[in-house]
Design a protein that fits this description.
This protein is α+β, with helices and mostly antiparallel strands. Helices cover 53% and strands 16% of the residues. The chain has a five-stranded mixed sheet.
Length: 469
């Protein structure tokens, strides 16, 4: 996912529900506002056409004098009825740049036909008030009696012209009333009110649900890392969430009980096995054949190492010591010195000072297992420390045959080895890499194995241990 999108897109349950609710409300309110605005516009247009029909059919003075000369505009503007009347002219009111309103003409024609008015042509257009001198003059002469005196002057008007059979045009001007802004404002206020009520209520409900879920998530993350039974979440929220939390607490208690039983059992097994092994180790000293005695001692030592690995792997998930600040270069240097003292070809490159929160005893065990693996299969091991975003890295390189690419993931599983034998010279019980991976995961990190290639062939194996900074 793109990082920018990750920042803007809500990822929590509450954020996504509120986002989709707001989007649905926006769509519904937009559709509703469009329908209301359209209906209002249709009503306004119908009212204006009816007003134009009344003007054109309700002026007996103009209808009685249809054959006379055109009435001057001054006579129309000065009428005592204080309304802009009907202009009588021998020419069409339609201008070349104007577009006729076909639907309005059809409606007006039906009204005039119903009133028995004979005509040869109808013209209905919409015109800006600023472009009509007669309308501007009328508004200037009647400021007090204008229906728009207390509001903003109209900007548009409907102009309806009727052509009589005698050749004269009768034209009525109907101002388009304002109110569009007020309508839009009322729709926006209504939408805002609905948003506040619904989104606010949903936010409170989701908060009641998500707060215990967030606490439960934090608890699960902590329990998966520490396996500690302290600090369980108290059931809260709706009944469904309460039941979920109570079930999780019961599951935690059951898991902790099983882990405790496992630790007791493994401790007993370790004690019961190591005691006779120690006694057997003493007894084989009486064997006179040095070769046979050495083979017996090596077999007992191999059993002891395998037993230690099994017990360590069982305990790594429930460490008894707390993480502490650890300087990785010093820890790695101390481990490498142990192998140098034994004459093993293990080196450590110079590295910067890197401090992490770690369990030093377990981390040393993981490094020893990885170094032993490199020595066993590659004859040497080279350590190098580095940094990656959010992680400190410890890389162990060897010059061995590597691992087939399709077998790398399997090699991290317990008791897995590439060869069928399990003698001490070729790798023991196959728990070293598994234990190293468990230690990395105990610290919130990872262990990655990768073949190193040179000239198209495998030149060795690289094990990368990542520990969070």
């Amino acid at each position: 996912m793109d990082p920018g999108r990750r920042r803007t897109w809500p990822r929590s349950l509450q954020g996504q529900v509120l986002f989709w609710l707001a989007l649905a409300l926006l769509f519904a309110q937009g559709l509703s506002a469009g329908l209301i605005y359209r209906a209002q516009d249709q009503r306004r247009e119908a009212a204006m056409i009816n007003a134009a029909a009344v003007r054109l059919t309700g002026n007996p003075r103009e209808r009685a004098g249809r054959g006379d000369a055109p009435v001057p505009a001054s006579r129309i503007l000065g009428r005592e009825n204080r309304r802009m009347g009907v202009e009588i002219s021998p020419t069409s009111p339609l201008r070349d740049s104007e577009t006729r309103l076909a639907d309005a003409e059809r409606t007006l024609g039906e009204i005039l036909s119903g009133e028995g008015v004979a005509y040869t042509e109808l013209v209905v257009v919409e015109r800006r008030v600023a472009g009509d001198p007669l309308a501007r003059q009328w508004l200037a002469m009647h400021p007090r009696h204008s229906p728009f005196a207390s509001t903003e002057p109209p900007e548009r008007m409907l102009l309806a012209g009727v052509h009589d059979p005698d050749g004269t045009w009768h034209t009525a001007r109907i101002f388009v009333p304002g109110g569009q802004r007020r309508l839009v404002g009322s729709l926006l206020a209504q939408t805002l009110f609905i948003y506040i009520v619904l989104v606010g209520a949903m936010a409170l409900l989701l908060r009641r649900i998500t707060r215990p879920l967030a606490a439960l998530t934090t608890r699960v993350e902590r329990f998966s890392a520490e396996r500690d039974g302290r600090g369980q979440v108290e059931p809260s929220g709706p009944d469904d969430v309460r039941r979920l939390i109570a079930a999780h607490n019961a599951m935690e208690n059951r898991i902790i009980g099983l882990l405790d039983e496992k630790d007791v059992m493994l401790g007993a097994i370790g004690h019961d096995l190591k005691t006779p092994l120690a006694a057997l180790r003493v007894r084989i000293e009486s064997v006179e054949n040095d070769a046979e005695r050495g083979k017996m001692a090596a077999g007992i030592e191999d059993i002891n190492r395998s037993l230690d690995d099994i017990l360590s792997l069982a305990r790594v998930g429930r460490p008894s010591d707390d993480p502490e600040s650890t300087e990785l270069s010093a820890l790695a240097g101390a481990v490498v010195e142990e192998y140098e003292d034994m004459g093993e070809p293990v080196t450590c490159a110079e590295s910067p000072r890197i401090v992490v929160r770690a369990r030093a005893t377990w981390l040393r065990r993981a490094l020893r297992n990885l170094i032993d693996n490199g020595l066993r299969y590659g004859g040497s091991a080279r350590l190098a420390l580095g940094r990656e975003p959010g992680f400190a890295t410890i890389r162990i390189d060897d010059d061995g045959p590597g691992i087939p690419d399709d077998q790398i993931a399997r090699m991290l599983e317990p008791f897995t080895r590439l060869e069928a034998s399990r003698n001490s010279s070729t790798g023991g019980a196959g728990l070293g890499l598994t234990l190293a991976r468990a230690v990395a995961e105990q610290h919130g990190g990872t262990l990655e194995l990768a073949n190193r290639r040179a000239g198209g062939r495998i030149a060795g194996l690289t094990a990368t241990l990542r520990i969070p900074l």
